[in-house]
Hints:
Blueprint lengths: L3 E6 L5 H12 L2 E4 H11 L2 H11 L6 H11 L7 E4 L5 H12 L4 E7 L2 H9 L1 E4 L5 E3 L19 E2 L6 H24 L3 E5 L4 H12 L1
Parallel strand pairs: 1-3, 1-4, 2-3, 4-8
Antiparallel strand pairs: 5-6, 5-7
Helix pairs in contact: 1-8, 2-3, 2-4, 4-5, 6-7
Amino acid sequence: MATQLILLGAPGSGKGTQAARLVSEMGYNHISTGDLLRNEIAKGSELGQKVQGIMTRGELVDDATVLELLNANCDLSSGSYIFDGFPRNIDQAKSLDEVVIKNANHTALYFDIDLDVLAQRLVNRRTCGDCGEIYNLISKTPKTEGVCDKCQGTNLNQRKDDNEESVKTRLGVFKSTIEPVLEYYESKGALKRVNASAPSEEVFKEVKNTVK
Ligand SMILES: [Zn+2]
């Protein structure tokens, strides 16, 4: 029977990398709400036009619209899907259950990582302004300081929102909104945690064992 996966994890927890491998190596369908919204706009449907209006005004698309899109784009009876980026809070978790998941077999997978460790990771992240390669001043330093290994460019930049203060704020908000979500899935017996501070390869092994 198909299992639906709900991925939960802080920004920078490696959730996106693991999602990509679940798709390429295990045949999951990746559902990103951002992609769904962009596709709907591209289709020019009535819903797409409504979404475009909301986004142009810089507002957030309401949950009911996102749920409608999810329902229209997932056939849980025939495939296994990864839900990524939704739910982000307890209200979304409950409505995802009621409207989309219903009685389907599902697991919520939490990429568990100490938030102080994660903060250090994010603060030390540098991105090559020329080719997009990502470095970390602690765990993945360029061979020559300040020079990109890949393209030899010298624009290794810190993203504006990766400074210590905004990282702390972001992770604080994440922690307070995710805790009720974790409790919710735990109470349903659907929560699994993987140790996301391990190297990526080990995390994937654990993910595979968990979803088997
Ligand atoms: Zn580069």
